[in-house]
Amino acid sequence: MMAAQSEVKKEEDDLSADIKDWTKHHVRQWALTKVRVDAKFANILFEQDIGGASLLLLDKADLQGLGITFGPVKLLISARDELLKLRQELVTSTRSESRKTCKPYPFYRYHDTCRYIEEYILDVTESGASDYIEPCHEYKAFIHTSAENEMNKFTQEVIRFAAACMNSRTNGTIHFGVGDQPDFTHGQVLGVIARDKEAFQNALKHAIDGHFEYKHIPAAKICIKPVRFVGVLNQDRTSSEKCVIEVDVVPDSVICKENIYHVLPVDNRKAKKSKGKEAEGTELKPSKQFFIRDGSSCRNLLAPTTFAKPKEEYNRFSNSLPEVLQLRKQAEEKHLREVKRSHQGSRLSQMITGGSHSLDKSHFERYLIVTNKSHPIQLESLAFLQELNPTAVLDLDPESKENGLQKHFEEQCTVHSPAQYKITDTVEVIAGKLELTRNTSWVFCNGGANDEKPSEMETWLIDKGASVRDVISFLCRKDILPQKRFLVVFLLLSTVSEKMDPLLETFAMFWQELKGTEQILCICENDKAFTCWKDLIKARYEIDISGRCIYELSFSEVNGTILSLLSENRRASRFLPCNGESRVLLERRVEMSLNTLNVLCVNQCEGGSEDKAVIEENFYKGGKVSWWNFYFSDQPGSSPFIKRDKFDFIINIVIPDLCSLTTACVSFNLMHVPGCGGTTLAMHILWTSKEKFRCAVLEDSNADLAKVADHVVKLLMHDHNEQLPQIPVLLMIDDFEDIEKVYELQQLIEKQCVKKDIQSRSPQVILLNCMRSESTSEPDEKLGGSVFLGNKLSEKEQKQFEQKLVEIEKVYKKNAETFYGFMIMKSNFLPEYVKGVAHNTLKSFSFDQKHAQLIAVLALLNVYCKGASLSVSLCEEYLDILPKPYCGSVRVEDEFGKFSTLITSILVQGMVLFKAVKMIHSSIAYHCLQELTTTHHVKKADIINLLLTTDKFFESTQGKHTLMQDVRNILVKRHYSVSEESLFSPLIQDIANETEGLEEFVLQNASKRYETDSIISQLLARYYYLKKKHFQEAKTWALKAKELSRESSYITDTSAQVIKHELRSAIANKENPIEPEKLQRFLKLAQSAIEVFQEVHSLAKKESVQRFQTRMDKCPLNTAGCLGEIQVAGLVIQILERTPIFSADNLHHDIMSAVLSDRMNLRDLEKSDPKRSKHKMYYSILGQFDDLLYKIRMRMKMNFDFLENFYVNLSSRFGIRDIREQVAQKELFRCFKQYADLFCQSKAQLRNKGMMNTMLQVILARQYLEMRKADTHSGILNYLLLAIPSDVMEKISKQYECVLQNAVDLTLKEKINVIYVNVVLCCKKPGSRLFMPYRKTLEFLCRLLQEKIPLDDNLALYFIAVGLLWPQKHSEITQQPAECKRLGHFVSLLRTAYNAVMKEVCNGKRPFVHFLLGKKQGYERLIPLGEIEKIYSAGQEQISSLWENGKIWKDKIVQELLCRVTGEVRNNVLVPYTIFPDLKIEVIPLFRSQISGRASGSKVSFFVGFSMKGPVAIDID
After folding, report:
1. Helix (H, G, I), strand (E, B) or coil at 179
2. Residue 468's pLDDT band (boundaries 50, 70, 90)?
3. Is the dihedral of CA 1084, 1085, 1086, 1090 positive or negative?
4. Is the distance from CB of 1213 to CB of 1406 less than 8 angstroms?
5. How far apart are CA 322 and CA 558, in angstroms?
6. Residue 1317 CB contacts under 8 Å (≥ 6 apart), including other chains
7. pLDDT digits (tens, 9 = 90+) for 734-776
8. What is the rounded distance in angstroms from the CA atom of residue 670 to the CA atom of residue 773?
9. CA Rg, the chain, in Å?
10. How many whole angstroms separate alpha carbon 562 and alpha carbon 337?
11. Is a pLDDT exceeding 50 seen at residue 1098?
12. CA–CA separation, 304 and 295 (whole Å)
């Protein structure tokens, strides 16, 4: 009762602004408190249920009839009328104060910075269909809607409005939070508070499913755009919680076609549920509605009516729909490419394209825009700027960023200030930082960027003129933009009327740089602007600019004219596949922002007008395949594109298999022999898959992989907004030289998916890695990791090529003879055919001719550098071809004469995008180079020397940076193999074999060309100490290299290597004994080498820490310093063995071991030597180096242990063993054998085996363990991977048993190793009787955990503890060791120990997973990773691919071996369930994307792996 009274009191106190909304409580309260009549009269009103609406209708007679006397009646009537008058005046006053207008949020946009201001008026009225493209609008105040009814009201209004727009074929926007008459001013911004924005998105999605007919749901979801929330500012421009909720409707003619859209007034899913409850014969089924836009409202043509013909209007509208659709199509076309006739239209076409009248075939490759202050009305008519894709825009409008041209195009450009163009580094580096040719560089030339203030017109030239000239000079360089092939467009958006105008000064700068106006085009909006412009230029510079101006066209006409110069495929909309076989528009601005990707759309090439003959000829001659080749083959009347045998295997088996996995990003490799069609096959796969996947090709293999990953995920998420993506991305990667880059990109994509909270219960991105392979042996394709395409056609493929040849010869006749790319494959890659082509084409070759020199250079580059090319600009300069700014310029390929059939033109993405030429086929290049050598006696040394010594190749031309890199690579890059380490690059080795000695001249010339390149100086040093044995010269070059790169461990290593090789060379003569003087020199060299190697290791660790902290460089630790020090120590041992002190017999062997172990000093040895007077000189020299000698064993052992720990506990980030590391490990094995022979056995003691005592047994046991590398936990774990007899492991176990029982100085390290030996022995030989019982081992481990643990032993102890103490699934709690309950603490300690020990060395590596948790009990619970890999008889690369994709865990045998653990997600880690309810073990997911999007507490299952960094979760489900 009290609650009810409280509610009434609250209601009475809250008098609404609108009288008609008053309740009877409000009226009584008003009568009592405002009018102040007696309570009995107020109660009469209450008892008669007089509310606000009734009060407005009452007159004097009515009140008196109720028994109210004359006085109170007079007061009540007067107070009511006065209140109405005041309220009306207040509304009028409010409306008069709120007449400020604003534009609606841009239609079908989501990322603009536009916000509304409260009480402002939208300057568009509610309307019906006008021109179909201009959106109609509908306003809903939405402020009096209750919370319970809010979502229902929102969805009903949107469905009604959207259906009306779709049926009327007009674009439209419905606004919630915008008022309408009579309560508000029409279009008044009110704003509403939307607390759960996602709920609106979800409600609309469900409403579309429930209200539209099933067959039209996909179209409705495309036409009804996602909900947009536009922020509303307070009138003082401060932020508020309010927003206007908007939904755009775009009934595109391609989507809607001739369909009509009925909707149900209630959700049809709810209707279906209620259908079963309907009484028989009763029609409760909701009737359909059909809405259209009728003026400013929506009208239902199927509403109940009294007309005789209720459906007449509906039928009439349905019949007129084809006409409406046609009008919509025409409006869309007009909106895209409106072109008005003007006599200057053709002139504009001529000048903007250089005479070709087609932007697709424009003579100009690049455009620069120079512009001034814009007006908002102009901006919509400047869409052609986007299509010109300008390299740079020089903007003189300081407000452009806030409300001008730059704001209009902000998503297609990168903002720069003129200062960024100042040459402070090499031109290539500056161009790379500016990302020229990738994004438009928007240069603010009069302030507006970085808070720079604008200058007055009179002071602009002084304040900013110099910096703008720097920009212009930079852009006009030949190595930035192609000479005579770029156009400067002056866009006069404001009239220039002053002689000091900055635009006029900028014109003068371009005129001076370009030496004329042939590359300048001026566009003025009207004749007046043109006249002022022309007169000013005439007066100041005496130039008549009329012939380079367009001034009779409006900007709308200019826009339409330029857009009409694009081929149909450029103008047509582009669509990406979406869920349910629907499509989504890929806006041009979005596609341009994904500048690292070449996106393949579902309607690729449709409506285009490319020349089929030109494209096919280029492809058949050996040019790269394009999407047009596949498109032409799909057209009626064309023969299908040749389908390789591997095509169906990849499409039907490999890709579906990958789609069944659970990681966010998966990959597979298409390995192919160069020139056998691998890239073509990969693109064919993409073309066929473009309806099922969002397909793209990586544009530049050297692009920043983090940026690529970002763009890939943006493509994945495009138009999904807050929904999860439904269509995966299929990304083709071509020409990655290192497969690890693929896995790195895979990880970066995984991280982006985690960042975007994208769940990966199935792959979201598939990487098709198309990689060249020199091997011709096929991998096991059944594993799915790799597919191999060799250089041998099957019978089926040969038949297809023969059939295609018949078609080609019919169409192209004799030209088909030069289709070498096709003919090489058709001939089944016969070397004789290619050799014949090379021989016949090069008959007239003369190395004195310039075009012959270029073909020789191209052949050499293509043989030794995959895909190398020469820029067209370079070729033009070299051949003295002068390009012209108009149509008719010479094709550079034609200037190669008879050799033109051997080359093809391509686009190369270097620092800037440029056109280049390359050899048509790798085998053509190889045989041409052979032909030049054998027939024309042109040696490889001649060609590379020509390249290095000719300045024209390296002057300011496009592609200079790329050429410099290619030439450097063929000089420097070596090929590595486990069996043989290549000392020099293939080119240098081939030159040495072909013309021995000339390689030195080549390298000397290289050093002059690359004067500041430390790697080239390093190469000279290596050449002189490895090949020539000129160690002094080598030291000179090594010193120069170090001066250029002082902090590089790799460069410093060269200095150490020179000394090491000098020492090795010096002792190679086998002089025995070594003379004292030489001994002194040798030891001095050794000491110097060791000091430099130690510096190398110090620098390497410093580099590793820096890389780890910045996380930018994944290069692993350089271990050359450790290995080099070991090698020099080995040389010292060899030297000492040839001195009379240590070379006599076995006893002297033991003495040397004692001295180098610091167990015996030289003075004591000298005293006991009977020949000490004879050896005095030797002792004197050795004494000078006693500090070096005493530390030999200690330093060798320390380095061996360090490298063992590094190689065993860390793997490459993607599991692929580095060949250089394998070579280093092979050398390490040799060095360790030398170490073990000296330090791990006593030759004197071995003769007295019968006299062994207990102490000696322990010594010999420890020597054996050290000799077997079983004295460290890393060495013992390494036995899991080594193919050694299990008997060796048993002997190791016996030795540890001896040490354990007899050693009086037993260390904690040895106790820990005992546990490792037992675990590994059980893995190697489960039936052995020598390992300790499992229960006893656990007890032993628990005792060790109670001891004081040295820091050095933490990592080893806690790793094995975590593995062995993991709670057993089927055991009773009482059977588990008590320490199991502390497992979470041990995991934490393990991670701390890992970070302490591995921080300096772990960069570029990941912890090796030594064991996985198995289903069995005891030791056998720990399954070595090698056991899993044995199931697959595959190479390391395939195993790595299976690991990264997660496919390896789907194998039934693997699943039978491993134990799947259940648990839950908590704070981005997994916590497994165990038999201990309170035990919390944090397990890190191997792929974080597998738990992305899962709420905390989500249940999961996974396999557990054990690494030195702690347990990891694998295959999370």
Report:
1. strand
2. very high
3. positive
4. yes
5. 32
6. 1270, 1276, 1289, 1292, 1293, 1296, 1331
7. 877 777 788 788 888 888 887 777 766 678 899 999 888 765 5
8. 9
9. 41
10. 9
11. yes
12. 20
Judge whether residue 1062 has pLDDT over 90. yes
- Interatomic CA distance for residues 1103 and 1120, integer angstroms: 13
The DSSP output letter for 278 is P
pLDDT (tens digit, 9 = 90+) per residue, 1252-1299? 578 888 888 899 999 999 999 999 999 888 878 888 899 999 999 998
> CA-to-CA distance for 1141 and 1176, rounded, in angstroms?
10
Chain position carrying tokens 């590094």: 1206
- Of 589, 662, 146, 190, the C-alpha closest to 387 is 589
Answer whether the bond into residue 1073 is a cis peptide, omega within 30°: yes
Tokens of 1214: 């993607």
Tens-place pLDDT, residues 846-878: 999 999 999 999 999 999 988 889 988 889 888
3-state class (DSSP) for residue 1013: coil
- Where does the pLDDT of residue 573 fall: very low under 50, low under 70, confident under 90, or very high at 90 and above? low
Pairing label, strands 520-524, 486-492:
parallel
Of 985, 960, 982, 984, nearest to 970 by C-alpha is 985
1178-1191 pLDDT tens trace: 899 999 999 999 99
Between CA 544 and CA 537 the distance in angstroms is 7
d(CA 1127, CA 887): 67
**Is residue 529 within 8 Å of residue 522, measured between CB atoms?**
no
CA distances from 528 to 494, 552, 1403 (A): 11, 10, 66
Q: Can you read off the two tokens belonging to residue 1118?
A: 């350089």
C-alpha 886/C-alpha 484 separation (Å) is: 9
Residue 725: CB partners within 8 Å, gap ≥ 6? Answer: 716, 717, 758, 764
Specify burial of residue 1041 (Cβ count, 10 A radius: 0-12, 13-18, 19+): buried
Least confident of 27-36, 132-141, 1499-1508: 27-36
Summarised one tens digit per residue, pLDDT across range 365-401 is 899 999 988 877 778 778 888 888 899 999 998 888 8
Token pair 């997911």: residue: 1485
CA dihedral 1006, 1008, 1014, 1016 (to 10 degrees): 10
Q: How far separated are the first and last CA of the chain, in Å rounded? A: 56
* Span of 41-45, 635-639, 1019-1023 with lowest mean pLDDT: 635-639
Please give the pLDDT value at position 268: 57
DSSP H helix total and E strand total for the chain = 64, 38
State the DSSP H helix or E strand holding residue 913, giving kind and residue range, or none if neither.
strand 913-919
Q: Where are the alpha helices (DSSP H) in 320-404?
A: 321-337, 345-353, 376-379, 384-388, 400-403
The band of 1116, judged by pLDDT with boundaries at 50, 70 and 90, is: confident
Quick: pLDDT tens for 172-211. 999 999 998 888 888 899 999 988 888 999 999 999 999 9
CA distance 698 to 717: 18
Instruction: Reduce the DSSP state of residue 1485 to 3 states and report it.
Output: strand
Q: How far apart are CA 1422 and CA 1424, in angstroms?
A: 6
What are the respective helix, strand and coil percentages of the chain, to the nearest 5?
55, 10, 35
Tokens of 634: 């799909």
Please classify residue 1292 by burial: count the beta carbons closer than 10 Å to its beta carbon, then call 0-12 exposed, 13-18 middle and 19+ buried: buried
Residue pair 920/821 in contact (Cβ under 8 Å)? The answer is: yes
How high is the mean pLDDT of the chain?
83
Instruction: Give the DSSP letter of residue 955.
Output: S
**Model's pTM, two decimal places?**
0.67
Q: Which two tokens stand for residue 519?
A: 């590359």
Q: What is the 3-state secondary structure (H, E, C) of 1207-1275?
A: HHHEEECCCCCCHHHHHHHHHHHHHHHHHHHHHCCCHHHHCCHHHCCHHHHHHHHHHHHHHCCCCCHHH
